[in-house]
Amino acid sequence: MTDSDKRPVAVFDLDNTLSDTAHRQRFLERKPRDWDAFFAAAPEDPPIPEGIALVLASAEECEIVYLTGRPERCRRDTLAWLAAQGLPEGRVHMRRNDDRRPARLTKLEILKRLARNREIRVLVDDDELVCADAERAGFSVVRARWTAPSAALKTAQEREGRT
Fold first, then answer.
1. pLDDT at 103 over 90
2. What's the longest Cα–Cα distance across the chain?
3. How confident is the model at residue 50 (pLDDT cuts 50, 70, 90)?
4. Can you count the helices (H) and strands (E) in the chain?
5. How far apart are CA 147 and CA 13, in angstroms?
6. For a FRET experiment, which of 3, 6, 10, 20 has its CA 20 to 30 Å from that of 152?
7. What is the per-residue DSSP string for 21-61?
8. Run of H or E including 115
9. What phi and psi values does residue 47 have, to the nearest 5 degrees?
10. What pLDDT is attached to residue 127?
């Protein structure tokens, strides 16, 4: 076991935790929702200072893991965005392109898998349902409440399993 394998893990969501999706919400507010445009605009997300600062502070003691509801097809853009923000490298867990389960199910599944071998120090996420389920499962949670909640995104996360 290497030293990095002994460090606790800090798990961070991306959308509305580290990246501000407000500029692309309009793609979810129309019918039908334009998911391709929503995800295509993600590389233009401005960073959220509170989230970025928390990742950087956490990286001093923890290995950073990113846990997003974004589909796998967004991996290249997501990795480029993380690097452009100067964020620590870390594993990025994304949903399968065809996985439409609610974010609270997919994220909790991955958290439990990570916790089998490592101490999870904290989960930082903006989704109240994800946070509540993670707390019920015994995880320490920081609710990322630094952006205005989006009803369209909440529906997407919970009912449509899209992000």
1. no
2. 51
3. very high
4. 7, 5
5. 13
6. 10
7. -GGGGGGTSSSS--HHHHHHTGGGPPB-HHHHHHHHHHTTT
8. helix 103-115
9. -70, 150
10. 92
The tokens for 9 are: 């893990």
Going by C-beta distance under 8 Å and a sequence separation of 6 or more, which residues neighbour residue 45?
15, 19, 20, 21, 23, 24, 81
Q: For 52-100, how does the pLDDT look when each residue is reduced to its tens digit (9 = 90+)? A: 999 999 999 999 999 998 999 999 999 999 999 999 999 999 988 888 8
pLDDT confidence of residue 6: 85
Sign of the alpha-carbon dihedral angle for 6, 8, 10, 11: positive
DSSP code for 74: G
User: Would you give the distance in Å from CA 108 to the centre of its chain?
Assistant: 12
Contacts of 22 (CB under 8 A, 6+ apart): 147, 148, 150
Q: What's the token pair of residue 39?
A: 């995800």
Helix (H, G, I), strand (E, B) or coil at 140: coil
- For CA atoms 113, 119, 122, 124, give the dihedral sign: negative
> What letter would DSSP give residue 131?
H
